[in-house]
Amino acid sequence: MTSSHFLCHSPIFTPSPNIIENRSLSSFRSHGSSFFDSKSRNRRTPFVRFMVSARKQVEIVYNPDERINKLADEVDKEAAPVSRLTLFSPCKINVFLRITNKREDGFHDLASLFHVISLGDVIKFSLSPSKAQDRLSTNVPGVPLDDRNLIIKALNLYRKKTGSNNFFWIHLDKKVPTGAGLGGGSSNAATALWAANQFNGFLATEKELQEWSSEIGSDVPFFFSQGAAYCTGRGEVVQNVPPPLPLDLPMVLIKPQQACSTAEVYKRLQLDRTSKSDPVTLLEKISRNGISQDVCINDLEPPAFEVLPSLKRLKQRVLAASRGQYGAVFMSGSGSTIVGIGSPDPPQFVYDDDEYRDVFLSEANFLTREENNWYTEPASRSARGSSSQFSQSIE
């Protein structure tokens, strides 16, 4: 992770020239919810180095994770139930997506089989001694760090609903590309609600968190399912279903750099040209017979392909090159990710053609969770993205 550097002049420090002082703090626990144990205090990592010249110029070098550690150490003294927490924030795909009606409020009714998959972000939370604001950092440039971010929206909503006065330092290790139709931001919001509830001693039930989360976005309530759900309404009406497909069924995700504007996709949607397949029948077929091209219908593909013609060409090329490698190839959500179910390997042309040099690639499989437990990060993940998607940038 890239360190940040600040130069400042200070009349406070008066040590001799060229003195170097090293300070250490305990390292962040790597994964899972945790109470901070005393043993980990013995593992010390460099945090701050003061370099003082004759001109009393001070250089401060720090790592954002260690900044979070320092705050958590202060909070530890207050004996909080949980002082720091690392959670996996998985994304989803729409195995099928039917658009059934245009609503009076301007939204559309849908019927879709949502399923959590093993690609996801990692979010580190730490209680802040501040009672004024949350602080968010990330490894990806361009991600908003204020209340435009769904993580901050979720924490604000939790405080509003419960009266909690806890604020947080959060670091988002982003792996899910934005504008992909994978619900990465919605998952982040759901994960933040779950985290806030743990920090506050479970003031809310899972059902309450799910109900509140619809105020943030239509896809957010789904992540409080057990991982597979038949979703209707705007997407906020969530019905848990038994996983209809094997959890170890492999898939490959291929997302070009270009993103689809969800608003523009819906603007071009023509209801009289959508599929006539009954969504309940589609769900029954998948549960009974497994995956196939004819059941993986996405009514948003035609308008998305109008917005981004190159996306249509990508799907066609994947289908042509698969030679039975994939049981189905389809777009997730409003795009722009193309999903190939049945193999973790992308077709060779993705590696050979310069046109696809900067696509995001990831293998994945389906994922579920047990009630009262959040999703667990798989032991191994494989993702390839352009350098711009995974460059280090801490703000």
TrEMBL record:
It catalyses: 4-CDP-2-C-methyl-D-erythritol + ATP = 4-CDP-2-C-methyl-D-erythritol 2-phosphate + ADP + H(+). It holds the Pfam family GHMP_kinases_C. Residues 379-395 have a biased composition (Low complexity). Residues 376-395 are annotated as: Disordered. Residues 279-352 form the GHMP kinase C-terminal domain. InterPro entries: GHMP_kinase_C_dom, GHMP_kinase_C_sf, GHMP_kinase_N_dom, IspE, Ribosomal_Su5_D2-typ_SF, Ribsml_uS5_D2-typ_fold_subgr. It comes from the Eukaryota. Keywords: ATP-binding, Chloroplast, Isoprene biosynthesis, Kinase, Nucleotide-binding, Plastid, Transferase, Transit peptide. The keyword Kinase applies. One of its GO terms (molecular function) is ATP binding. Residues 149-226 form the GHMP kinase N-terminal domain. Pathway: Isoprenoid biosynthesis; isopentenyl diphosphate biosynthesis via DXP pathway; isopentenyl diphosphate from 1-deoxy-D-xylulose 5-phosphate: step 3/6. GO terms for cellular component: chloroplast. GO terms for biological process: terpenoid biosynthetic process. The keyword Transferase applies. Its EC number is 2.7.1.148. PANTHER family: 4-DIPHOSPHOCYTIDYL-2-C-METHYL-D-ERYTHRITOL KINASE, CHLOROPLASTIC. Belongs to the GHMP kinase family. IspE subfamily. This is 4-(cytidine 5'-diphospho)-2-C-methyl-D-erythritol kinase. It comes from Prunus persica. The lineage of its organism: Eukaryota, Viridiplantae, Streptophyta, Embryophyta, Tracheophyta.
